[in-house]
Structures are given as C-alpha cells and as structure tokens.
Amino acid sequence: MILLADTHLLLWTALKPQLLSQKARDLIESEVNEPTFSVASLWEISIKRAQGREDFQVDPRRLRRGLIENDWREISINDEHAIVAGGLPPIHKDPFDRMLVAQAMVEGAKLLTVDSQLARYGSPVLRV
Question: Which of 36, 39, 62, 84 is found 20 to 30 A from 73 (Cα to Cα)?
Fold first, then answer.
C-alpha cells in the first residue's frame, strides 16, 4: 500500500518519532507498504519555516535528502492533483492538506494523518 504522510507526520517521523502512534509506526515500517511524501509538504515547511513557526524549524533540503536516503518516494504535484484539489468539498480549508488529499486520491494512496478534520474526507485518509 502506498502511504502518503501528511506534513506533521512527516516531521514527526524524521525529527520526533516518539510522537508517532504505534499504528503509524507499524504502517510506515511494514515492508509491504511504500512510504511517500509530497513536494507540497516541503513547500509548506519552507513557507512556515520562513514565517518563523516553531514547529517547522527544519531545513527542507535536509529533510528531503534524509527521507530519500531512507527509501521514501517523493510525489511531485501535477495537473491532475491540482484539478482534484480544487474540486474537493470544503471540509478542510488548508490548501496544503487539500493537495495531500487530492494526491492520495489520484495516486491510490492512503494519506496518514492525526488530523480528525482531514479524516472527514473518508477513504483516501487514514487517521493514525
């Protein structure tokens, strides 16, 4: 199964793995699953880091390199992702999260999150 980590889960995986639930850890570490991350998360981290957000103070280049070195696959943003994101119901207003939901839908992935509001999108989202 393709697992797309939302931005917070991605940060926790790389920097604070003790914050991950056992369920999230088991899914990510399972050899049958393919952990992935989105360039949308790198974009979000870059913007929020520049705004001085405490919880986003990580170098996105180093984060990306570390993820790739640990066999995570990167998903770029394409036209289909953008179109699907624009057509999502307004359950969640954050454009980064909406893009992640759209990417999960288009790529046939499960979006892993701790966000209960994001989980309201249903089947492409898995709350862990």
Answer: 84
* The two structure tokens encoding residue 21: 């639930």
| pTM exceeding the 0.70 threshold for the entire prediction | yes
Please compute, for residue 37, the number of CA atoms within 13 A of its CA located in the half-sphere on the CB side.
26
| Interatomic CA distance for residues 115 and 122, integer angstroms | 12
- For residues 73 and 34, is the Cβ–Cβ distance under 8 A? yes
Phi, then psi, of 123 in degrees rounded to 5: -55, -35
Q: Answer for the pair 64, 14: CB distance below 8 angstroms, yes or no.
A: no
The continuous run of DSSP H or E covering 15 comes out as: helix 7-15
What is the pLDDT of the chain when averaged over all its residues? 96
CATH of the domain spanning 2-127, picked from 3.20.20.70, 1.10.1660.10, 3.40.50.1010, 3.50.50.60: 3.40.50.1010
